[in-house]
Here is the input.
Amino acid sequence: MAAASFGAMIAMLAAEAPELTALVCDTPEGIHSLTRSELDQRSNQLARAYAGRGLGEADIATLALPNGLDFFLSCFAIWKLGAIPNPLSPLLPKHERDAIIDRAQPKLVIGVAPDDCAYPCIDTKPALDSFSTQPLPDRVSPRERALASGGSTGVPKLIVAANPALYDPDTASPLFRGERAVLIPGPLYHGAPFSAAFQGLFAGCKLVVMQRFDAERCLALIEEHRVDRMTVVPTMMQRIWKLPRAVRERYDVSSLAFVLTGSAPCPAWLMRGWIDWLGPEVMHEAFGPSERIGGTFISGTEWLQHPGSVGRPAAGAHLKILDDDGRELPPGEMGEIYVMPAAGTGSTFHYVGAQPKLNEEGWQSVGDMGYFDEEGYLYLGDRRSDMILVDGRNVYPAEVEAAIDAFEGVRSSAVIGLPRDDLGERVHAIVDVGPDAVLVSEEALRDHLAQRLVHYKLPATIEWVSTPLRDDAGKMRRTALRAERLGASG
Here is the structure.
């Protein structure tokens, strides 16, 4: 099959099996679904409604929609007009949301009330009865998507994909090729869930989407729909793993053939637990930024030989580790990760509102730290901006968080550096124990950490909270957490 536009793909699938379920969305209000025919025809109507509001080829349309049927209908309507979707979290504070919208300069904003936005807006569910369900002229969006990034640093930017919205089954990523049903438990405004969702649909799978992640509900959906492929972040893995064992084993998840984790470093204890549970042939991990400049991949079988690694370079990309002076480091030495895409500098994206960090040879960094072992397997540190300097020694927050998260009763944690009364920084741990704080002893946690971390990595101070520190995409805003605590202390 030759490459086809995203709009044409859903039309072809609808023509093949119009009554087959395309989408199942799990929401607090219940299950909602669309057949292939309904998805195609309703998105045709919605495209005409958007065109009536001025949206056309190569225009950006911002979507502030939760996971659900409307998100998919809107994306296909945008693509069918040859326009570019710019998905945002519907929960963003107004100031941050408006800053990103100003970067995007959209022709249309979907999901924001007209009196709350300076750009043309449209209701998430406009009346469609007056619009035809017939196909529109086939158009190809020149850019598949424009993702928002950088809000946690206070400098919002767009990552605009270089590739057009075309699907070619011969070159589609093998990471997202399901067989029966693909589960999307994460927010669609992030890169991996977005890709997994639409690539799963185009492969002919039923798509099962969670509006909000819930650990036990996730297992129930896997069993009910015989899900064979799922993309998760370590936060989700941890929440599932910390369910009572009897609850976790209540559900039949034997249909899972491929589970992929990424977005944040996965603690070795957690990856090993999932490998023991589901099998090394099922578990996989990938590393790579939303810029799609390149990354790594590792199977569970390889992981057992290289515990803690995120794999070797994949898809023709090249990676190297450089020191602060731009010199390449040998295996075993931590430095900044620089990447060269298979097709060269600037071949996968461009920024709106920022400039890429390039060295003299055109290799790019997004700030991640890591090192290679002797066999070329990559191990991650933290973002350079997240490192904590304690008495001249680097402390990587992810290492401390992994030790904290392994403690019974801890739901999640965030480790940041705060100023000491003398020079340097101190390690400050923010520990989320949900509603069960009384069950967690600080003394016991400190004893646990002392057995796993060298003394200078131990938290000088521990703060207890009962709210999640990572969102459903596994993202944590250390910059904001640090700023809040500096404000409170000063």
Summary: The longest strand covers residues 412-419.
